[in-house]
Amino acid sequence: MRVRCSQLVKVFPGVRALDGVDLDLRPGTVHALLGENGAGKSTLIKVLTGVHRADGGTVTLGEDGETRTVAFSRPLDAQAAGIGVVHQERNLVPSFSVAENIALQALPRRAGVVDRAAVRDLARRCLAQLDLDLDVDQPVAELSVAHMQLVEIAKALATDSQVLLLDEPTASLTADEADRLYAVVRRLREQGHVVVLVTHKLEEVFAIADVVTVLRDGRSVAGSVPLATLTRGDVVDLMVGRAHTELELSERSVDRAGTPALELRGVSTSVGHRGIDLAVHRGEIVGLYGLVGAGRSELVRALLGLDSVTGGEVLVDGDAVTIRSVGDALRRHRIGYVTENRKEEGVFLTQNLARNVAVTVWDRLARFGLVRDRDEKDLLATYRDRLGIRLSGPDQLAGQLSGGNQQKISLAKWLAADCSVLVVDEPTVGIDVRTKAAFHELIVELADQGLAILLITSDLPEMVTLADRVAVMHERRITGELLNSHHYTSMSAQVIRLVHGESAVDDPPAA
Amino acid sequence: MSTVLDEDMGAGAGQGAGASRRTALSLHRTELVLALVAVAGFGVLAATTGGNILQPGTMQAVLQFLAVPIVVGLAQMVVLSVGQMNLSVGALTGLCAMAAASLMADSGLTPWLALPAALLVGALAGLVNGTLVVLTRINGFIVTLATMSVISGLRFSINGTGTYQDYSPGLVRLGRADVLGLPVVFLVAVATAVLVWFFFARCVAGRMLLASGGNPFAARLSGISNDRSVVLAHLLSGLLAAVAGVLVVALSGSVNASVGDDLLLPSFAAPIIGGVVLTGGVVSVLGTCLAAFIVRLVDVAQAQYGINPRWVDLVVGAVVLGAVLVSQRRGKGSS
């Protein structure tokens, strides 16, 4: 079955996640879907599998002779049309057997009783199609992650899926397991299925894909191009592209001669980081870039005592310290953390704004254990003016603010605590373009005032705009560090090369 | 498209799946341990009372009064299977017992009509519980806390604080009869347990409940309606509570509105000690029955040794807490 998408558009409040995507999936091919973080890959998959409805464009199924246009409104519609998706080990019932999981979408039955023989037969057929030998009676819970993934593929085959979307299938597999998966993928291709591979790993793409589509900023910049016509360098260039209208900031100078405000020396953590060296000076913005899952937020969480630092040294203003908790980090070392999930971790949605800002300094405001409303409101007023927060009054609930203003409240909370080091994690996710620019100016302003800022972002243009230096993390290691030239084309190419494990300097980009 | 069960998906899904995975593996071990504890406890009791509880009369009493705890435990287990709770189990057992007695004593119906009517009352109440949970999206704990009060009130509205007696000598004779030394009510409870086991192990509907409880996201993507699972679980829970009510009517010979007041803790104790996962997806009929038996042994020990009855609830409560703690530790330990 051939699937063609034409000019797909999907709009979320403030963002055009898909802005004219073309995709042509032909039977018997392995189609790689590439793009940096936030390019629109996940949204495209969700539209194809009926989780989201497209706001524009068409999806047509079938060969030239007989085609039909479809609009999936729920996952089952996509499944019925023969489009199956394999999530990362999320789609199985752990206590059920392999066979039952494979057959779950339509359990063979006789008078309401599960026909166990038929369930096993179906499962064996699907597994045989993949050339897999698994015990169909084994509970899925006992399988390795790799096997679970293969069971999910078998499950998709059980509903006769012609198109299989594999979302980062090798993210948690070893090299051997990945090879096994590739063998399965090749087999599916021979049988005439389309396999869509969403991945960040270029080596994987060149190993098994035939056709590639590259997304950038919600557009397909390379729509279904045969991979044979492209080199690795071409693909990287396609993914990076050119940044559109970025905020131009005046040149900043940073004094790196003094003692860093925060320094990590050979730090390893309980969540897998090894030998991390990183330093942030006063007045400096250090960017930490990496793919989603590279371990950036995890490093900060370990640093702040939410997980543990197991080796190396953490120095604050030149003194080696041990940070046991966020409270410790805040009160003793004046390190603040503006979290990525502002809704879950950054603000108290059901509390008023004054309380949200004052929470970090209650013990400073309190007299005899009591905090006066007026003190909280004064504090809020200060930061409303300083950060330009748009609010109707101090009693407004944080949940009633827009995303950008919520983020400012989250930031105000840490500024109120008088931090000297601020970790800002994905500050502008889901924030509209104008607020984003204002936020960028704010971050630079804070650095100018002498704060040391560690910026984590997956938004490459944002990184190039803001950071003075960029450290790149890949699989929980720092793979390189670059002085930011603020020149998007050359910076982005260097960063992406570091992310994909290539040296940043061997191939000077044509700028 | 979100459903009641989807709410705790997000970040919790992976964690929950992991926990139920480990528990699934340790379930057989739990059942084995429970069987050993049951045998050991029974042996100790038999030895220290000089064989007292082995005498036919005593043994029959032990099993007779095991019937209701088994069935209310199953009633709770059914809702736990989808990750919900039903606080109205005890009150509903009482309401169904009163309804059955009233239909026989006040309306003069034969047990052949009165008992099915009581079962219908239970199933309807369960249907209301489930429908409320799904329609209002209010947590099942809160919904059944509210309906528990309502049902409790209805229970008293039937006959005030009065007691029904002599509603059906034939039924009570049957309720106290035994077959080959095994009380009829106990056999009914065992038969019920077998049916519940068959439902969860073999029936499509039962497997769907477990799929919804085990991984709501996977269930939804497999075309299973999690809402339907919730409603069905509550309906069956109500029906089983009614079965327990009917057993009370047959067994005791006299019922009043206080029936069911002391059943809420046992209803949770049996499945929780029995290894059923609170977050849903894993059930154990055998574990629930064995746990009910062990709790029953605590009761018997109290009677045999003349211990203050207050201690029984304390011991059962402590064991429930311990069982949850152990399963949590086990979950953490192997991760």
TrEMBL record, chain A:
<dbReference type="GO" id="GO:0016887">
    <property type="term" value="F:ATP hydrolysis activity"/>
</dbReference>
<dbReference type="InterPro" id="IPR003439">
    <property type="entry name" value="ABC_transporter-like_ATP-bd"/>
</dbReference>
<feature type="domain" description="ABC transporter">
    <location>
        <begin position="249"/>
        <end position="500"/>
    </location>
</feature>
<dbReference type="InterPro" id="IPR017871">
    <property type="entry name" value="ABC_transporter-like_CS"/>
</dbReference>
<dbReference type="Pfam" id="PF00005">
    <property type="entry name" value="ABC_tran"/>
</dbReference>
<keyword id="KW-0813">Transport</keyword>
<protein>
    <submittedName>
        <fullName>ATP-binding cassette domain-containing protein</fullName>
    </submittedName>
</protein>
<dbReference type="InterPro" id="IPR027417">
    <property type="entry name" value="P-loop_NTPase"/>
</dbReference>
<keyword id="KW-0677">Repeat</keyword>
<dbReference type="GO" id="GO:0005524">
    <property type="term" value="F:ATP binding"/>
</dbReference>
<dbReference type="InterPro" id="IPR050107">
    <property type="entry name" value="ABC_carbohydrate_import_ATPase"/>
</dbReference>
<keyword id="KW-0547">Nucleotide-binding</keyword>
<keyword id="KW-0067">ATP-binding</keyword>
<dbReference type="InterPro" id="IPR003593">
    <property type="entry name" value="AAA+_ATPase"/>
</dbReference>
<feature type="domain" description="ABC transporter">
    <location>
        <begin position="3"/>
        <end position="242"/>
    </location>
</feature>
TrEMBL record, chain B:
<keyword id="KW-0997">Cell inner membrane</keyword>
<dbReference type="GO" id="GO:0005886">
    <property type="term" value="C:plasma membrane"/>
</dbReference>
<comment type="subunit">
    <text>The complex is composed of two ATP-binding proteins (LsrA), two transmembrane proteins (LsrC and LsrD) and a solute-binding protein (LsrB).</text>
</comment>
<keyword id="KW-0813">Transport</keyword>
<keyword id="KW-1133">Transmembrane helix</keyword>
<feature type="transmembrane region" description="Helical">
    <location>
        <begin position="32"/>
        <end position="55"/>
    </location>
</feature>
<protein>
    <recommendedName>
        <fullName>Autoinducer 2 import system permease protein LsrC</fullName>
    </recommendedName>
</protein>
<comment type="function">
    <text>Part of the ABC transporter complex LsrABCD involved in autoinducer 2 (AI-2) import. Probably responsible for the translocation of the substrate across the membrane.</text>
</comment>
<keyword id="KW-0472">Membrane</keyword>
<keyword id="KW-0812">Transmembrane</keyword>
<keyword id="KW-1003">Cell membrane</keyword>
<dbReference type="GO" id="GO:0022857">
    <property type="term" value="F:transmembrane transporter activity"/>
</dbReference>
<dbReference type="Pfam" id="PF02653">
    <property type="entry name" value="BPD_transp_2"/>
</dbReference>
<feature type="transmembrane region" description="Helical">
    <location>
        <begin position="61"/>
        <end position="80"/>
    </location>
</feature>
<feature type="transmembrane region" description="Helical">
    <location>
        <begin position="111"/>
        <end position="134"/>
    </location>
</feature>
<feature type="transmembrane region" description="Helical">
    <location>
        <begin position="272"/>
        <end position="298"/>
    </location>
</feature>
<feature type="transmembrane region" description="Helical">
    <location>
        <begin position="141"/>
        <end position="160"/>
    </location>
</feature>
<feature type="transmembrane region" description="Helical">
    <location>
        <begin position="310"/>
        <end position="328"/>
    </location>
</feature>
<dbReference type="InterPro" id="IPR001851">
    <property type="entry name" value="ABC_transp_permease"/>
</dbReference>
<feature type="transmembrane region" description="Helical">
    <location>
        <begin position="230"/>
        <end position="252"/>
    </location>
</feature>
<feature type="transmembrane region" description="Helical">
    <location>
        <begin position="180"/>
        <end position="200"/>
    </location>
</feature>
